[in-house]
């Protein structure tokens, strides 16, 4: 069986930092509340009105090419996981393809909110496993600041902008994506959504007045379901693959709330030293959180190490993936 393995990691984060202190000037909140309830200190914001998700995703794609030492014409497919595409269509993947000059590639966007990268990784791996495609880019990119209501203190403190992604290629040494558990449950979708702008509620004076072009979230029910969903999926994938806490080198969790991550690690029997955590510096970057962790931890990862990726997001969508890291740092 051909397995799909990650052979390069790339990223892009905007330079501008939005701190908790700055948010204190926008809404009634404070640094202590934000840090103790979420673990977030600051996030990155892409302010330039001429730049959007495809810009960040393309910068990430260029870094992927550089890090793998290949040309854009060698890329077979580009999948961009995002809920903040530049436009409804064309797909963000088309804009990335054009920007990097991937003349042989096809591509599309995948919408699964905070589970977007996890689902796109499985989709991209399927292309490689089929034997039909050799080099597949999977990028998670979200420009959350464009859909955040900076008058809503319960959501504006959470999100940031970023892109990060991986290149997938065939592995014959037994490493790569080993197993996945993914779920979608449309019950209670109203707890986390953006109501306006789609075919149900196209943009109108009314949707603007209702503030329907911003994220809305009922924090508490989402929190409870996220803890359950992420922890259950991670525990189930360990059990199914006979992995103990000892066997797992790293948990790579979606970064939505430090307390959700903590609960997931405890359920897996992992100490926090084995958990990739950068929520403090980036907040929740939706589809970019997991690959952004992989990017930052990449110099420490060793061939054959067991990683469990886990996410929960709007939809609801959630799941876990088990992979064996396929290369040593240079
Ligand atoms: O990534 C996709 C999935 N999303 C998630 O996983 C997010 C899940 N939810 C959460 O992470 C948490 O629910 C939040 C961080 C969003 C909120 O934390 P919480 O501990 O659930 O707070 P809460 O919503 O229960 O609110 C507690 C209190 C409320 O005041 P009262 O009613 O007790 O007086 C809120 O109005 O905290 C208040 N509050 C704030 N206070 C200061 C809400 N936001 C803020 C704020 N600053 N920014």
> Could you give me the name of the CATH homologous superfamily of the largest domain?
Thiolase/Chalcone synthase
Q: State the low-pLDDT regions, or none.
A: none
List of distinct ligands in this structure: oxa(dethia)-CoA
CATH architecture of the largest domain: 3-Layer(aba) Sandwich
**Which strand order does the major sheet show?**
1-7-6-4-5
Q: SS-based structural class?
A: alpha/beta
Average pLDDT level: 97
Give an account of the 3D structure:
With 330 residues, this protein is an alpha/beta fold. The chain folds into two domains: 3-174, 3-Layer(aba) Sandwich (Peroxisomal Thiolase, Chain A, domain 1), CATH 3.40.47; 178-324, Thiolase/Chalcone synthase (Peroxisomal Thiolase, Chain A, domain 1, 3-Layer(aba) Sandwich). It is built from eleven helices and 13 strands. The protein has helices at residues 20-26, 31-38, 53-68, 92-100, 116-129, 153-156, 205-209, 219-240, 258-268, 279-282, 289-297, and strands spanning 3-12, 17-19, 42-44, 77-81, 106-110, 136-143, 161-171, 176-184, 192-193, 216-217, 248-253, 306-313, 317-324. A five-stranded mixed beta sheet has the order 1-7-6-4-5, with helices on both faces. A four-stranded mixed beta sheet has the order 8-13-12-11, with helices on both faces. A two-stranded antiparallel ribbon has the order 2-3. Strand 12 (306-313) and strand 13 form a beta hairpin. Helix 3 (53-68) packs across helix 4 (92-100). The two termini are 27 Å apart. The site of oxa(dethia)-CoA has 20 residues, from helix 2, helix 6, helix 8 and strand 12.
